[in-house]
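Task card 7
Instruction: Convert sequence to C-alpha coordinates.
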Amino acid sequence: MDTDIINIFTGQFIKEVEPNIHVVMLWDKAGFHTSGRLKMPENMTIVPLPSHSPELNPVENLWHYFRSHFWSNRAYADYDDLRLAAVDGWQKAALNPEIVKSVCRAEYTERSI
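Output:
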Protein backbone atom coordinates (compact mmCIF):
# COMPACT_ATOMS: atom_id res chain seq x y z
CA MET A 1 0.00 0.00 0.00
CA ASP A 2 1.09 3.51 -0.63
CA THR A 3 -0.45 6.94 -1.14
CA ASP A 4 -0.86 6.45 -4.89
CA ILE A 5 -2.94 3.31 -4.30
CA ILE A 6 -5.06 5.07 -1.66
CA ASN A 7 -5.68 7.93 -4.09
CA ILE A 8 -6.83 5.42 -6.72
CA PHE A 9 -9.04 3.70 -4.14
CA THR A 10 -10.75 6.91 -2.96
CA GLY A 11 -11.23 8.04 -6.57
CA GLN A 12 -12.89 4.75 -7.50
CA PHE A 13 -14.86 4.52 -4.26
CA ILE A 14 -16.37 7.97 -4.55
CA LYS A 15 -17.61 7.21 -8.08
CA GLU A 16 -19.96 4.68 -6.44
CA VAL A 17 -21.47 7.34 -4.16
CA GLU A 18 -24.21 9.78 -5.10
CA PRO A 19 -22.75 13.32 -5.36
CA ASN A 20 -25.06 14.63 -2.61
CA ILE A 21 -23.85 11.98 -0.11
CA HIS A 22 -20.99 12.76 2.27
CA VAL A 23 -18.84 9.76 3.19
CA VAL A 24 -17.04 9.44 6.53
CA MET A 25 -14.31 6.79 6.85
CA LEU A 26 -12.47 5.69 9.95
CA TRP A 27 -8.79 5.08 9.21
CA ASP A 28 -5.76 4.24 11.22
CA LYS A 29 -2.75 6.52 10.98
CA ALA A 30 -0.73 4.45 8.52
CA GLY A 31 1.63 6.66 6.55
CA PHE A 32 -0.31 6.22 3.33
CA HIS A 33 -3.47 7.39 5.15
CA THR A 34 -1.83 10.60 6.40
CA SER A 35 0.46 11.60 3.55
CA GLY A 36 0.43 15.20 2.37
CA ARG A 37 0.02 13.77 -1.15
CA LEU A 38 -3.34 12.22 -0.26
CA LYS A 39 -6.12 13.60 -2.48
CA MET A 40 -9.45 13.35 -0.71
CA PRO A 41 -12.69 13.90 -2.63
CA GLU A 42 -14.68 16.92 -1.43
CA ASN A 43 -17.54 14.75 -0.21
CA MET A 44 -15.31 12.46 1.87
CA THR A 45 -14.05 13.03 5.39
CA ILE A 46 -11.47 10.87 7.11
CA VAL A 47 -11.66 10.42 10.88
CA PRO A 48 -8.29 9.17 12.13
CA LEU A 49 -8.28 6.57 14.87
CA PRO A 50 -5.87 7.02 17.76
CA SER A 51 -2.46 5.46 17.24
CA HIS A 52 -1.97 1.88 18.41
CA SER A 53 -5.70 1.16 18.83
CA PRO A 54 -6.69 -1.73 16.54
CA GLU A 55 -9.52 -2.57 18.94
CA LEU A 56 -11.30 0.59 17.75
CA ASN A 57 -11.22 -0.59 14.14
CA PRO A 58 -13.63 -3.54 13.78
CA VAL A 59 -12.33 -4.45 10.32
CA GLU A 60 -9.06 -5.55 11.96
CA ASN A 61 -10.98 -8.58 13.22
CA LEU A 62 -11.96 -9.42 9.65
CA TRP A 63 -8.27 -9.60 8.65
CA HIS A 64 -7.66 -11.97 11.55
CA TYR A 65 -10.62 -14.07 10.39
CA PHE A 66 -9.23 -14.26 6.84
CA ARG A 67 -5.85 -15.36 8.07
CA SER A 68 -7.19 -18.01 10.44
CA HIS A 69 -9.90 -19.40 8.14
CA PHE A 70 -8.54 -18.98 4.63
CA TRP A 71 -4.97 -17.81 4.30
CA SER A 72 -2.72 -19.41 6.93
CA ASN A 73 -0.88 -22.74 6.92
CA ARG A 74 -1.22 -23.16 3.18
CA ALA A 75 1.22 -23.43 0.31
CA TYR A 76 0.43 -22.04 -3.10
CA ALA A 77 1.90 -23.23 -6.38
CA ASP A 78 2.27 -19.71 -7.71
CA TYR A 79 1.05 -16.12 -7.47
CA ASP A 80 -2.18 -16.88 -9.34
CA ASP A 81 -3.10 -19.61 -6.84
CA LEU A 82 -2.41 -17.19 -3.98
CA ARG A 83 -4.50 -14.48 -5.64
CA LEU A 84 -7.39 -16.89 -6.26
CA ALA A 85 -7.28 -18.03 -2.62
CA ALA A 86 -7.45 -14.39 -1.51
CA VAL A 87 -10.43 -13.70 -3.77
CA ASP A 88 -12.16 -16.90 -2.65
CA GLY A 89 -11.69 -16.00 1.03
CA TRP A 90 -12.93 -12.47 0.41
CA GLN A 91 -16.05 -13.69 -1.39
CA LYS A 92 -16.87 -16.28 1.27
CA ALA A 93 -16.39 -13.95 4.24
CA ALA A 94 -16.53 -10.25 3.40
CA LEU A 95 -19.51 -10.64 1.09
CA ASN A 96 -21.44 -12.59 3.73
CA PRO A 97 -23.29 -10.07 5.93
CA GLU A 98 -23.74 -12.53 8.79
CA ILE A 99 -20.01 -13.29 8.98
CA VAL A 100 -19.15 -9.58 8.84
CA LYS A 101 -21.70 -8.75 11.56
CA SER A 102 -20.35 -11.50 13.76
CA VAL A 103 -16.62 -10.99 13.21
CA CYS A 104 -16.62 -7.19 13.13
CA ARG A 105 -19.06 -6.70 16.00
CA ALA A 106 -17.85 -3.97 18.31
CA GLU A 107 -19.91 -3.39 21.43
CA TYR A 108 -19.01 0.30 21.57
CA THR A 109 -20.75 0.86 18.21
CA GLU A 110 -24.01 -0.52 19.59
CA ARG A 111 -24.34 1.76 22.60
CA SER A 112 -26.57 4.77 22.31
CA ILE A 113 -25.51 8.11 23.68
